[in-house]
Amino acid sequence: MDYSEKLKNLPTQFFANLVGKVNKAIEDGRDVINLGQGNPDQPTPKHIVQALQKAVEDPDTHKYSPFRGLLELKEAVCDFYKKEYDVDVDPAHEVAILFGTKAGLIELPMCLLNPGDLMLLPDPGYPDYLSGVVLAGVEYDLFPLKAENHFLPDYNAISSDVLDSAKLLYLNYPNNPTGAVANLGFFNQTVKLAKKHEITVMHDFAYGAIGFDGKKPVSFLQVDGAKDIGVEMYTLSKTYNMAGWRVGFAVGNPTIIEAINLIQDHLYVSLFPAVQKAAIAALSGDQTCVKELVARYESRRNAFVDACKQIGWDVTAPKGSFFAWLPVPDGFTSQSFTDYLLDAADVAVAPGNGFGKYGEGFIRVGLLMDEARLVEAVQRIGNLGVFKNK
Ligand SMILES: Cc1ncc(COP(=O)(O)O)c(C=O)c1O
C-alpha cells in the first residue's frame, strides 16, 4: 500500500526529530535540561480543572456538541475580547471554535485557496504553517524577519508582483520563535497593505497573553478595518496552561469564520462539551492566574538573560512569548551549536534553522523551567568557554 502524494509531501516534523534526540539522551541516563520545546510547564489553574470535573458529571456533556460549538462559549469569547482588547465580536457569525489553533492554522489555506495559489509566511516561523500549505496544495513565499527590523516584516522589501498574487498572509506576535512583539502601527500598515493587494490576513495570537515590562500585547483586531480582511486565532494552551486540552478559537471576518465552520462541519462535531464548559470558566473567570503566569515568565526571563550576560553571551531580552532567541557564538551554525550543547553540556535547545533559513545563526530557548534550572543551563554553557573571546 502506498501513501497519497499529499501525505508524502508533508514536511518532516521538526519537533519530532528534536524530541527523539533529546529522549535518547535522557534514556541514556543523562541529566538533560530540556529547553527545546514549547510545552507550558505549569498546571491548568484549579478553577478551570474543577469546571471540567463538574461539567463531566452532567450527562448533557456526554452528547454530541452542536456542530459549531456551544453558543455560550462563543459568547464567553466575545466578552473576553471586549474586556481584554475592547474589540466587539459577534458570537453568532464572528467566532469559530477550534481544536487548538493548530487545527485552524492548517485548515485555513484549504478553506480559502485553490491549488497553486500563493500564501506568504514568516521566516523564521512556526513550522506547522507549512503543513497547511502542503495539505491545501498551495504555493508559498517566505518573508524574512530580521533583527534589524525587530523581527517584523519589511513589506517594502516584498515585490509588488508577489504582493499582487498573494492571497493569504500569516503573522504571529508575540512571535514564536523570536519573542518579538508588534504594535498597532504595524498592524495598521498590515491592514492597508492587505486591502491594497487583496490579501487575507491571519494573525496567530497564540502568545497574546504573554507580554513583559508592563506591556500587554495588542490584538490585530484592535485596528480599524482588520475585520474586513482577516481573522485572529487565539489559544487557551498558553494563557491558561491548557495545551493538552486542545481548545482555541478564531475571531474576525464573518466570511472567513463561515469558511472555517464549514470545513469543520465535515471534519468534526466540535469539542467535548465539558472541555467547552471549562474553556468558558477560563475565559470568563478571574484572570489573576494569567497575571501570575506572566510574572513567572518575566522573572524567569530576567534570571535567564542576566545569567547569559554574566557568561558573556550578548542576548536581547524577549518582549513577549515564553521564548528567548539567542545568537550562536562565532564558529558555530545553529545546528552545530545545538548538537554541541546537548553533547557537551546536556542542554537541549531548538536550532533556529528549523524555523526557516533566516533562523540560521540563532537558537531558541523555552523559558519553561524554574529559574534555578534555567540558570544552571546557562552556567553549564558558560563552562564550555565558547563566549570567552566575545
Ligand atoms: C506560534 C504558535 N501558533 C500556534 C500554536 C498551536 O497552539 P495550539 O494548537 O495548542 O492552540 C503554537 C504552539 O506551540 C505556536 O507556537
UniProtKB/TrEMBL annotation:
Keyword Transferase: yes
Named cofactor requirement(s): pyridoxal 5'-phosphate
Domain Aminotransferase class I/classII large residues, every copy: 31-381
Domain of life: Bacteria
Molecular-function GO term, any one: transaminase activity
Transmembrane regions: none
CDD domains: AAT_like
SUPFAM superfamilies: PLP-dependent transferases
Database matches in NCBIfam families: PRK08068.1
The protein, known as: Pyridoxal phosphate-dependent aminotransferase
Annotated organism of origin: Caldifermentibacillus hisashii
Lineage: Bacteria, Bacillati, Bacillota, Bacilli, Bacillales
